[in-house]
Design a protein that fits this description.
This protein is α/β, with parallel strands linked by helices. The chain has 16 helices and 8 strands. A hairpin with a 6-residue loop joins strand 7 and strand 8.
Length: 442
């Protein structure tokens, strides 16, 4: 029973010293671990700015949580520091996260406002796209010297604007139709999609990929060093059991080699210890955190890492997988995607777009596909699987802003799916219409 007259909040924290270091996206570390080679490539690519040459365009890619943005910020700061010491004109904009923009207009508008003071900001609408590009070129020429623009999650730039934007911006000073005559423009693009450059037009690929730097996943030993560094800052002295950091590192290495996942495990384990009123964080707390981290991580994907169309495609793939037929073909995924998008009041994209969304999900390691030969029927089709437990995906979707797209009877279908899996039940083939009738869309 709760005493309503007693304040339940505690003014002290016996476990955490500072939680911010566990929020990787909002904390800038003083030390960069196990990225010496990538930093060397970066320095070599940007050295031209310091010695008087035009800035190079740099494309940085790799999975999430492997240090791309942290290294970019560190190199940016060092470059600005050196340029100031050598009296070299340099203006750096970004990183600007492209995930937040769904049109070229919105992104370029933001870039313009990065150059302007608070009294001269462009409104969010009212001009043509050509006009805001012109404003951007005018701002670049006005500051002059070397201008370096850093775009994070560059693969989120809308496809219909991607080629023009990524080709024109780095070459703006060479285009006689822009007002740029003295400024020198360089672009740094950061992407989680390893195949992003492959889908660009050849001329854009050549421009964007002048210098490419690949970040691979961390191994368990590297993660132990990195997580240990953050843990020393975040937790109070002597509260972590000796197995906590190694266990979090081992689990993260087995999954994706992702620092963010390891930090989430440490934070969750610390919270479990604090809730219990324990003196320290134990192996048991850490194992409990790993048991729940999957849903938390997937929720983060839904809320932060996936576009709305990617999220709906991911949910549709999961729903197709748990149906009695247990087969997520592209056609079936599209039919379900259309239903959940329409029922939740979201825009329905073309079937051709689904291939693009599925490919993007595959690049992020969320789905995988297998090609099936149809034999005498002729042709081939692709069957998809999700790489995480469907239960975790659906639980995350239900907790996310896409909960209105989840069919109301999903738990019943999921229960039957789990029973079928346990008994190796093979359901009879059903038509697409029959499968469609399984779901209750509200």
């Amino acid at each position: 029973m709760v005493d309503v007259n007693e304040n339940p909040f505690d003014g002290t924290d016996a476990i955490f010293e500072r939680k911010q270091p566990l929020k990787k996206d909002t904390f800038t570390p003083d030390t960069i671990f196990h990225r010496d080679e990538e930093i060397e490539f970066y320095i070599n690519a940007l050295q031209d700015v310091i010695v008087g040459h035009d800035p190079n365009n740099v494309f940085v890619y790799g999975p999430t949580g492997v240090g791309k943005t942290a290294v970019t910020k560190w190199v940016r700061d060092k470059l600005e520091e050196k340029a100031e010491a050598e009296d070299i004109p340099l203006t750096v904009i970004g990183p600007i996260n492209c995930r937040n923009y769904r049109s070229a207009y919105a992104l370029v508008n933001t870039l313009v406002n990065e150059f302007r003071d608070s009294e001269n900001q462009l409104p969010e609408s009212g001009y043509s796209t050509d006009s805001v590009f012109e404003f951007l070129y005018e701002e670049i020429e006005a500051v002059g010297g070397n201008v370096l623009i850093i775009l994070d999650e560059i693969d989120n730039i809308p496809a219909d604007a991607r080629n023009d934007f990524l080709y024109e911006l780095p070459r703006a000073e060479a285009n006689e139709n822009t007002p740029i005559t003295d400024a020198k423009v360089g672009l740094i693009g950061i992407s989680n999609d390893l195949k992003f450059v492959d889908v660009l037009e050849p001329k854009v690929k050549s421009t964007l990929g002048e210098r490419e730097i690949k970040f691979g996943p961390y191994d368990a030993t590297e993660l132990r060093d990195i997580l240990g560094y953050y843990a020393d800052i975040a937790f109070r002295e002597d509260v972590l059991g000796e197995d906590v950091v190694p266990l979090a590192a081992a689990f993260s290495a087995q999954e994706r080699g992702d620092v963010r996942q390891g930090l989430r495990i440490l934070e969750k384990a610390g919270e479990y210890a604090r809730m219990e009123g324990a003196d320290g964080v134990t192996e048991a707390h850490t194992r409990r955190a790993t048991d729940t981290i999957e849903t938390d991580e997937l929720l983060d994907y839904f809320e932060h890492d996936l576009s709305s169309q990617q999220a709906l495609t991911y949910l549709a793939t999961t729903l197709a997988l748990i149906e009695p037929k247990h087969e997520a073909s592209t056609k079936r995924i599209y039919n379900l995607y259309s239903s959940i998008a329409e029922s939740s009041g979201r825009r329905v994209k073309s079937e051709r777009k689904i291939y693009e969304f599925l490919d993007q999900l595959s690049m992020q390691g969320l789905v995988r596909s297998a090609e099936r030969n149809l034999g005498r029927k002729g042709g081939r089709k692709y069957i998809y699987e999700v790489t995480d437990d469907p239960t975790d995906i659906i639980n995350a979707a239900l907790q996310s802003s896409y909960s209105d797209a989840v069919p109301s009877n999903v738990n019943g279908i999921l229960e039957h799916y789990l029973e079928d899996e346990a008994t190796e039940f093979e359901a009879p083939d059903t038509t697409d219409d029959e499968q469609q009738n399984l779901w209750q869309f509200t």
